[in-house]
Specification:
The protein has 260 residues and is an alpha/beta fold. The protein is built from nine helices and eleven strands. The strands form two sheets. A six-stranded mixed β-sheet has the order 5-6-8-9-10-7. A five-stranded mixed β-sheet has the order 1-4-3-2-11, sandwiched between helices. Helix 2 links the parallel strand 2 and strand 3. The protein is globular and about 55 Å long.
Length: 260
């Protein structure tokens, strides 16, 4: 029996239902023929030149990414733009592209980080959307917790930032993979000792700390979301009736390539 793009899409949408994505999000199949055969699948955080090139080079029939290619509307996929060039290459090389974004966050992003860190999640951080999580772990100092975060996340040039008292004991942990400064107040409201997220901006972070907020650990967006890919792959392969080859991209696709 031949596995098709449509079979993979159906399995993904059982695992990560479209209705759980936020209203502004654009998830699902963005490139590809539903009846095209699938023998190999790649997984990556971002659809970009590096991940598309890798998919082509490794002979993938389908690339599944966390982030959508287009979060805002477009009227052109001409190769005069970066995203147009990537879209055109995917089409030419018969590589389908599918994204599971906030729907995957609700289902698995928090669990991926919590499992790595030994945090037992009790509830979502944002209970309205289901994004993020709050839970407990064996007590550590903030310094020790940050070291554990650095050890379990993939290494990137930008590293991991830590804010707060390094000797503070942390036991209750708030987590939001990806950009999470909109949930700083929620982390405090949940009684967290530390909040792990990415992309914290200067003013929200400093105002939070200066007003007695919980400790902060901030990694890069790619690093905090990369652990999700393992859960996505394992869940998908378990859901599919047919064998398919797969790989997880290890190419960092943050904007930052060096720390000087």
């Amino acid at each position: 029996m031949t596995l098709h793009v449509s079979d993979v899409v159906a399995a993904l949408e059982r695992l990560f239902p479209l209705e759980t994505a936020e209203a502004w999000d654009h998830v699902g199949l963005s490139v590809g023929e539903p009846q095209a055969p699938v023998r190999s699948i790649g997984f990556a955080v971002d659809p970009c030149q590096a991940s598309v090139g890798e998919a082509v080079e490794r002979g993938a029939d389908m690339l599944i990414t966390h982030h959508p290619l287009y979060l805002r509307g477009t009227h052109s996929v001409a190769t005069t733009t970066a995203k147009g060039a990537w879209t055109s290459r995917l089409i030419k090389e018969d590589v389908a592209l599918y994204s599971a974004h906030t729907n995957a966050d609700v289902a698995a992003s928090t669990r991926a980080l919590a499992d790595l860190l030994g945090v037992a999640i009790e509830r979502p951080l944002d209970e309205e959307t289901g994004i993020g999580g709050v839970g407990t772990m064996a007590p550590l100092t903030l310094r020790e917790f940050a070291s554990r975060v650095s050890a379990v996340l993939p290494t990137v040039s930008a590293g991991v930032l830590v804010g707060g008292d390094p000797d503070q004991v942390v036991e209750r942990v708030a987590i939001c993979s990806g950009s999470g400064d909109s949930l700083l107040a929620a982390a405090n409201g949940a009684g967290a000792d530390v909040y792990l997220t990415a992309d914290l901006r200067h003013h929200p972070a400093t105002d939070h700390l200066w007003n007695g907020g919980c400790g902060l650990v901030c990694a890069t967006h790619w690093a905090t979301e990369w652990p999700l890919l393992g859960i996505m792959r394992d869940s998908l392969l378990s859901e599919l009736a047919e064998h398919v080859d797969s790989y997880i991209s290890e190419i960092p696709t943050d904007a930052w390539f060096a720390r000087l």
